[in-house]
Every structure is written in C-alpha cells, then in structure tokens.
C-alpha cells in the first residue's frame, strides 16, 4: 500500500524501484482504467533518433545480425589491413566494370583493362 503525501506524491518501495530499474527523472505513463491506476515505465525517444526505430531500419539491422551470425562480416586488426581490403574490393569492382564494357572511354566505355587514362598507359 502506498500513501499519497500532501504534495500529491507517491513513494514507492525500494524493491519495486530496483526490480523495474527506475531512477529519479524516469518517465512513467499513468492510465486510469476501471477505477484503477496502471503505471508503466516508458522511454521517450528524441525525434532526431526516431529513424533508428523505423521498420526499414530495423529490418536492415536484422539482416546485418544474420550476416554476423553466418560469418559474412570481415574484420580487420588494423587500419592498414582494412584499407588494403577496401582497395582490393575497389580494384575488383573496377575490373568487373571494364570487363562488362571494354570500349575506350571516348566511345562511352570504361577503357581497356590495364590502361590508365591519366598517365596514358600503365
């Protein structure tokens, strides 16, 4: 049983506060239903962070978690290793692009494989 003090405040038993992990300043929703008060702890999300809780973003988070579980995510032990892997991926993508369209650049292609447009050769 709780007592309502003259400032209209309730003091909750400490074991309730610990069980619900409540601290001073936390928000509580109070709803009257059939003569009873239902008190529920709530978290208020700032508007500029709402994107994270959108259906689309959460679906993406779920896909990433699955990729992690399936071992599809690579890690690097240093910035140099990460950069090296990133460069390798860019080179492989460029080779694929050139292979798909080996026309010279002046004819709308990406140039010949192994040809550097900047240095006019390799």
Automatic annotation (TrEMBL):
Signal sequence annotation: none
Q: Name one Pfam family in it.
A: MazE_antitoxin
Name under which the protein is recorded: SpoVT-AbrB domain-containing protein
Domain (SpoVT-AbrB) ranges: 13-42
Which Gene3D superfamilies does the entry mention?
2.10.260.10
- Family matches, as SUPFAM superfamilies: AbrB/MazE/MraZ-like
The molecular function GO annotations come to: DNA binding
The source's domain of life comes to: Bacteria
């Amino acid at each position: 049983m709780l007592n309502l003090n003259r400032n209209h405040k309730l003091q909750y038993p400490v074991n309730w506060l610990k069980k619900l992990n409540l601290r001073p300043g936390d928000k509580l929703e109070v709803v009257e239903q059939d003569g009873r008060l239902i008190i529920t702890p709530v978290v208020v999300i700032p508007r500029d962070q709402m994107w994270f809780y959108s259906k689309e973003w959460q679906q993406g988070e779920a896909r990433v978690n699955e990729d992690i579980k399936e071992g599809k995510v690579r890690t690097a032990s240093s910035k140099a290793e990460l950069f090296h892997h990133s460069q390798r991926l860019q080179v492989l993508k460029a080779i694929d692009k050139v292979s798909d369209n080996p026309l010279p650049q002046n004819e709308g292609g990406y140039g010949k494989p192994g040809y550097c447009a900047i240095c006019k050769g390799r």
